[in-house]
Amino acid sequence: MIGFSLTDKQKALREGSAKIGKEILSPARAIYSQYNDQESRFQATLPFYEQLVKAGFVKAQVPTALGGSNESFIDGAIVAEELYAVDSSIMLHVLGTGLGLMPLILGGTPEQHTKFLAPFLTCDGNPLASLTHSEPGGTANWLEKGGKGLETTVRKEGDYYVVNGDKVRNLNQIIDLLAHFTLTNFDRMQLWTTNSAGWDGKGAALSCLCCRYSEDGGPQDPQDDPASNIIVLLVTRDTVAQNEPGAYQKIEEPNLMGHIAASGPLTRYTNFKVPVTDVLAPGNGASVIERAFSMSAALAGAMSVGIMRAAFEAALKFAREDSRRGTVPVIERQSAADLLINAKLKIDTSRILVWKALDGVEKGTGDDRSRYEACLQAKIYCSDQAVAAVWDTMQLVGITSYRTDTEFPRLLNDAAVFSLFDGGNIGVRRRQLQRLMQDEDYKPWASLW
């Protein structure tokens, strides 16, 4: 049966998340905004993040079956919407950690689950996780046959592997020989990898680091299947500490237009060794990463809803209280009301798409491709609506919304990234949807039953 009502437990989760947002996150922006650089602002969020960890929001990124407290993907979307509306940067620490753990959750062995999930299940400390995939030259076409492939590469050299680039023709043979991995080279760097450097530039508690096997560090062989060459390494802070000084370097923390206290550093790996036991899903690395990004697509939609909702609530309050020196509150003006209606329609339809996608994943509605399509639709639609919805509310409020001491500039800047990150809508997400539609077996309505 189709339904959109939250359970009593989900209502309590929403109310509790809203309370936590108000109590913990509301004061944060005033504190970290006083700093002029991204790094300092990121560091200033540490005590607030630790409070979210203690409150169980990081543990909630892990399914209950693996020791976490996440009972459903929709619960995650509810929390994301509530808290993202309050502070996007700090919630990106949390949700970026969820994305960073997703490859391990999806593709890890029981032994790897026990070893690598442990720091995220205690509700203590400040553990960050990262899906370390993006690179300075972009990764939209990282699995395109004949393309250059990932720049961060790995090759065998004695008892370890050295990152430089190319491909492998027999992945299983290589893994059998594997003793260590080594990441290397001046121009082999990662960028936009949320949380990957940790709090002190010495690495996150866990990074799922994506590499391409190559003997010479060059472009992939045009005849090879790029997916067969992808290797995912499970990198911890202990891994970093056990390497030579300079093997792992945080080069810079770029200043961002929005999410001004989030971390997406540029990092470099030089002869960086990772034990053989810490290889994730040998032979299936690309598939695991693709699945992780499909799940994150729907949650990016929930983030978009949170930003739109915050803008709507601020504009609604203004419209009810301010007359702009007229005889009635602004909300009684037809043009102003229409702007609110436009924004509200964007928000409600976006939320429905997110919940539908995640409900389908949980219940197994349709087939794998239809569930994947629903997640893509949620990401594309919600993120495309975010800037328009915030702009609708700003037009209602007028020039006052242009002041930096109002909510609107922050929300507009944050909203601008949604169609660009987590797989840009034009270069990645719409192309993924396009490929689904090009398949001869494509069933447009499979997600409905």
Characterization of the model:
- There is one protein chain.
- The chain has helices spanning 8-25, 28-32, 38-44, 46-54, 73-84, 88-107, 110-117, 171-177, 237-241, 285-321, 334-363, 368-397, 408-415, 425-438, and strands at 129-132, 153-157, 160-162, 180-183, 189-190, 206-213, 230-235, 248-252, 266-269, 272-275, 279-280.
- By secondary structure, it is of the alpha+beta class.
- It has three domains: 8-128, Acyl-CoA dehydrogenase/oxidase, N-terminal domain (Butyryl-Coa Dehydrogenase, subunit A, domain 1, Orthogonal Bundle); 153-282, Beta Barrel (Butyryl-CoA Dehydrogenase, subunit A, domain 2), CATH 2.40.110.10; 287-448, Butyryl-CoA Dehydrogenase, subunit A, domain 3.
- Strands 1, 2, 3, 6, 7 and 11 form a six-stranded mixed beta sheet that branches. A three-stranded antiparallel beta sheet has the order 5-9-8, with no helix packed on it.
- Mean pLDDT is 89; it is low at 164-187.
- Residues 7-122 form the Acyl-CoA dehydrogenase/oxidase N-terminal domain.
- GO terms for molecular function: acyl-CoA dehydrogenase activity; flavin adenine dinucleotide binding.
